[in-house]
Each structure stands twice: as structure tokens, then as C-alpha cells.
# Entry
Amino acid sequence: MPEYLAPGVFVEEVSFRAKSIEGVGTSVAAIVGPTRFGPLRGKPEVVTSFAEFTRIFGDINNLTLAGTSVLNHTAIAAKSFFDGGGKQLFVSRVANYVSPTDGYSSIADINNRVTFNSRFPGVMGDYTLELDWRDSENLLKSVETSVPAEGEVIFLEATGLSNAVRTADIDIRAPDSRFPIDIKAVVRREGDHFVIVDNLCEITTDDDVVLTGTQLRLDGAADGDDGVLMSAGLVAGVSTTIKYTQVTAKRPTSGALADGTSALLSLTSVTDLSAYTGVDWGTLTTLRGTLNEAGTEFTLDGSGLNAGIVLPATFSLAALAAAPSNVRAMMIQRNFDISVRSGGSSGSIVYSYGNISSAPDADNSLHNVMAAVPDKRSDQLSSPVSCTLANGVTGEQVVAALYNMFDSEALNPVGISVDGPRYLISLTGGSDGNVPAAIHYGGVTDEVNGSTGFAALEDIDDISIVMTPAAAADVANHQAIVAEMQKHCRKMRYRVGIVDSRESMSLSEIREFRSNFDDSRLALYYPWVVISDPRGINDTITAPPSGFIAGVYANTDVQRGVHKPPANEPVIGALRFAQDINRFQQELLNPNGINCLRSFPGRGHRVWGGRTLASDPEWKYVNVRRYFLYLERSIEKSTQWIVFEPNGERLWANVKTTVEDFLYNEWFNGRLLGSAKTAYFVRCDRSTMTQNDLDNGRLVCEVGVAALKPAEFVIFRIGQKTADS
# Structure
């Protein structure tokens, strides 16, 4: 009771009505079986479309179990479920690996600095990664300039030069105003003169003799004076012309350059610039290496990325001014996108990672974007590949590692290639393992690493339908797997299991198989369904019926209600059935609780049975069993507020009213048989509880309902009558 200690007006909230009961959903299904990809442990994730299923658990292509290619019945059943009207499907993937680390695809560079791994095991994890460099802008900037600043490196072209001499060991007359020379050289400004950088120059004499790599000196300089070319800005002779060209890499839009920034120099044709670079790169037209922070020097990679260059070689970008028409572009390779392709380099793209940096300490580095354990649950499920970097690795080493993993043929295409080089990395080593046995379907409860199989479904309350379509293709383990499903349904109480017959079973075989089970929470369907091949390989394939039947269950629940028998409904997607069942054959099967799938002229392909595998006639029909599970679960879930309430007449009356209101609504909607007075009863009083019950904290409420049974046998009695009045 509230306390009133001071005078005033007090407002209190009270309830004058009984609490209501909300009906639970009955159309949520779960499937347990092998898939091509996806998590093997932990709480299963719900998928609401087949596209979402393929995004997490792989496509519908075949599995390779124990070295044998088999149909992916789990994926086929999932597609059939959604095609038939299902909306929510929980998937628990099972697999049979010798070791928990088996089945994963991976690739690493030769130094193990960068390693890519498939997030989940499976052959589908043999992905092909295609890199697309984002920094595709041409960074080269070539500018004709005046006399350069102190220390600046430029490319100098001079004609008619007469204020320099050759060294004495070269047998040629020293030029003067009568014998001018022409020169092209990479030079650096030092005070009032220029110095040839690393002796990189080309000289043409007055009689067209071309000499390269020769040091020039000022008039009067002694032999051995190093590399002095000419006075800065000096123009000697009336015919002398001088041109200064500055070539650098400009700042890219993605951010400033850093030492060791990976870059690619592209040439339009084979270009010999050895006289100005000191490097002979032969017939290469694509050069890979790194830029310095200032964007003035390019270091060619010597690890094998540039054919014929065995050691790193650095040259000034100013040398490129010697062949401006042959230089196409300079592009850095720092930020990139990765497309994950399934089925090789020409396969479809299943996932994309955008804006990745080669810098290992960046927020968008490889090991952050493709984290081994992503922060978001959605990424943990759908991100197919992870990447790890070695400790202390640099950005330059990351790019070198990527090049080490690239497919050499795609990187250097022979002949005419419209698309140019492709940067492809192929993961290998994926495996689907062996055929899962009953123990793998049953699973284990593991609160640390995550539960598996049926055990993983125990923490999900919404599931009401379970199936194991792939088990029907395993003759050796089929019955044992169905037994695991039976145990799961009984343990979870509010679930029914759809049991598949095996392919091409005879009437005697299916009857013998049915005799192994007696449970109202199981329903058996026969035969298999013939459908068009969703893989596009064959014209048709046969599939277990459970995926189609689960779709019928879910669609019937939504359209009519769980009280409606899931029978006399079309099997969506069926072309025909693997075996044509006639009336006489069904007369052998139906009394045994074997639900037949039959084709009727003009009415298509339909579910023609609605019985459970129970011998108890009270639970003979699927809709009755499922409707009572619906009532029980709805009442249980919506009456949790009763626990620890004072157990007296007021509570009993409230409980009775709550349940009666719920059942009245069920009767009003046509789900119960009889009138409002005869369709149900609710008792919660001294007649249902003894003093011992009250002393031990028990509240007992008895509920009876008159469920609707299906009109399984429709009989019209027709006879003759006379026309007498």
C-alpha cells in the first residue's frame, strides 16, 4: 500500500480488466544440414529470403562430401520454403571435419606478412579476390621552368653549348664556340652551376657523335673536377638554347605521399631511358615500385615484379622528360577495393570491400576492414574473407606481399588485352568435409564456443517447424538423424518435425521406415518432388519434400490459421512427383500416417495427407497437434505475470477471465467446434486445487477445447426417392 504522510491529492493507476493473451506465431521454420558456407557454431541467424540465405550460407551449387559431389539439398529446401510462402527460416549448418581448423581456404605471401583466410570452412571459400586500385589519377606533372632553385633536380636540354669541355681520356676535341655540343641531362642546381646527377646524360657533338654518361666541365677546369656542366643561367654563343623541365608527382586527392608509397609507371611503348635513369628495363612498359615523400624519385621494385630488374633501382622523375610522348601515367597504389568472386576470376561477385589502405596503421587497413572478428554481427555473418598482417609490417611490404600473391598471368597478360592487367589473388584449400552423421546433427551445447546442430536451436523460442532435408539422401544415417530431430521436438515441446522419405522408396520400404516412429510431433511425406534444376545444369532434379511442405505449413498458417490442415494445398515449384501415387496405393499408406503427394488432372500437384506419426487417435492429425501446441505456447507465454502473485480467489478469477477471453476469440474466428458455451471450458478454483497445492505454491487451471478435425473423408449419401407427395 502507498503511504500518505502529508495532506494532498494523490493519483494512482489501477487496472480494472484482465490481462490479454496474444497468440504466438507458428510459421517460423528451422533447417539443419550441410551448406557450402556459413557459421558452424553459435546462435543461428534468421534469414527472410533465399537471397539472404545465399549471402550467409553460400549458393545452391553442389557440395563435395568425402570427395563426392552431391546435391545441396539444404539450399534447395530453403529456396522451396521461401517459394512456397515461408517468411522466416533459421539455419543451423552442420559439417563433419576431423579437426575444427579443417576446411578453411587461405593464401599468404612468401614471407607470411599478409594472410587471407576464408571466414568459414567449405569449398566455396576458395574465393578469388580482385583488387581495384582507387588511386587511378595520373600524378605526373611536367612543367617547363626558368632557372631552378638551389638543390632542385630537373631535366636540362641545351643545344649549341660551347662553354664546356670533355674529359681528357675521351679522344674528341674540346668544344668551343666553333665546335658546340648538344646535351640532355638530369642535373641539380648547386650554387652558380649545375651538376649532372649520377653522371646521367647524353651528348651529341657537332659531327653527330652521341656519347652517354660523360661528365662535362667548365672551361679551364682541371681533369677530375666532378660533374660540373655549366654556369647557371649562362648562355654562351648566339645559337645556344636551354630548356628546363621539372617532372614530379603531385599530391593525390586521397592524401599526401609518404616515403615508400607504392606506385605504377605506365609507358605507351618500349622506352629506353637508361642514359637518364641508369636503369635498363628492357621491354617493360609497366614499371612497379615506390615514390618518395616529395614525389621526385621512383624506386623500381627488384623482387621480381619488374622482369629483368633484380635489385631496387632509384631514379629521378625528371628523367621522364626525355621521352614525354612515351610516358602515359604515374599512379600510386595505396588505396584499393577488393571484390570477392566465387567460381574463379570470371565468377560472380559475392561481396565487396571498399576503400582499403595499404598502410597497416590506418583505420581502413586490410586487417581492420577485413577483421578476423568484426565488431558488427552482420559482418561476422556475411563478410566472407579475413586478413591478418604480420607484426611490424610496413605499407611498402604490404603492397609487395600483395604483388607476391597476384596471379602472374593475369598481372602480365600476353597479346592484346582490352582490360589490361588484373590483380587477382586466389584462396585455396577449402573443403566441405565428410558426410555429417547423426551426432553432428544432434550437436553439442557449448556456451563458450557456441552450440552446434539441433542444440544451437534450443535458445530460439520462435521456431515451430524443423526439417533435415539433406538427411534423406544419406541412407546410412537417415533414421538416426530423424531420431535426433524427434528428440529435439520432444525436448522443445512446441515444435513439429517434417520427415522426408528417401528417394525412390517402394511402398513396403516407406511403410517399414514409418514403423520406426510413434510421435505426434513428427509428420512423414512421400515421395520426392521433381523440380527444374535451380543450378541450370540439368533440366530437372528430384528433391526431398520437407522444404516444400514447410512452405505449405507457413503459408497456410498465415492465410488461414494453424487450425487449418496443411493439406489439399498446391506444392509450389513441383513439375511432378518422383512416383505417381494412386488411390489404391494411398489406401495402404494413409492409415499408417504416411502423407502422400499426388498429382490430379486439372488441379495440379498437391499435398494429399495431413496425419502425424502418432498411434494415439487423439493426436492423429497434424493441424490438431499444431493447434494445441499453439494454444499451449500462447497461454504459457502470456501468463508469466501470474508467477509470485498472491494465490487466492481474486487471482483465480483473473486467470480464468484471461484464458476465457483468449479462447472466445479463437471460437469467434472459427477455430473451435460448437457454440461459445460448448467449444471450451476454463476452471480455476477450489475444484482444481487442493490445500496441498496451495501450501506448495501451485495454481492449477484446467482448460478444455473442442478442436476442429479435418474432413478427411467426405461422404455424400445419394439414393432414389419417389415423386409421391
Residues 166-175, 232-238 have pLDDT under 50 and may be disordered. Residues 136-332 form one domain. The two ends are 78 Å apart (CA to CA).
